Amino acid sequence: MKKVVLVDSCCNLPPDVFDQYQESLSMISMPVHIGNMDFLDDHGKTMSHKDFYDALRQGNLPKTSQITPTHFYDYFEKLYLEGKEILYISFSSGMSGTYSNSVIARDMFLEDHPDAVILLVDSHAASVGYGALVLKALESLETLSLEAIADAVERERFNVHHVFSVSDLMFLKNGGRIPPALATVGTLLNLKPIMDIDLAGRLRQKNKVRGKSKLYQHFIAVIKDRYLPEKSAIHIGHGDCEADARELADLIEKTLGYDQIIINPESPTIGSHVGPGMLVVSFLGNERA
Fold first, then answer.
1. Bridge partners of 283?
2. Phi-psi region of 253 (alpha: psi -120 to 50; beta: other; left: phi over 0)
3. Given a cut of 70, is residue 182 above it in pLDDT?
4. Which of 119, 133, 148, 175 has the most Cβ atoms closer than 10 angstroms to its Cβ?
5. Distances (CA, A) of 152 to 117, 121, 265
6. pLDDT tens digit string along 89-106?
7. Are residues 9 and 116 in the same domain?
8. Running DSSP on this structure, what letter comes out for residue 285?
9. Torsion of CA 41, 47, 49, 51, to 10 degrees
10. What pLDDT was estimated at residue 183?
11. Does residue 108 sit in the same domain as residue 234?
């Protein structure tokens, strides 16, 4: 049987990766509501990234929903009927119930189709970190069994590092990630929270800096301390601020000498919770603490 890696729309990978692995990479989309529009997040096809972030700038507050067990069941059935063995690598269970819903759907599907092969791995990652982990799995498709790839992903997921900050603290406040008072004070003082993802796959605030220059220096320090270039490229995700992302990439290359850098905008699912101006750097390195 053919092997397929299934991801959800919280996985940030460039379109050319989906093109390169079009027979072995598939994406199940999360629902998004903004303004008077409901759509499935298909990484900018239904609603362009620019239109989405412009809608946020105009004051529209988006909502996202988990992928339901029924939706998972139907998608598993689609891939099963195509003769594929499935490895679903999910968005972190520390930030969403989507992984739990995939487990429910998998168990239901195997009752109806006991010959199906459906493996599930909780990435404990998000955004471009999730993407870096999936890209590592895709590179092993020709040489490893699906079970071996799943085992490798489970081992490697705790070596995925994320460091990010946002431009507008109110999106983190609205999502319950930071207290309202901190969002108000931080905005007035131009404080940028520095956040990462812990071993349980949950967001946590690590530090605060004032201004873009100090933020970039923090990114550089984390990369210098944690990055292992033989494991992955450096991935930069952005909330419709490509110029900032490229400025950061240039600084990384100039300061540290790393030029394997992948830049991609954040999908509406992630963008709903971080807003315009968000920057995130992810990579594979030594084990995160």
1. 161
2. alpha
3. no
4. 133
5. 17, 10, 27
6. 999 999 999 999 999 999
7. yes
8. B
9. -140
10. 64
11. no
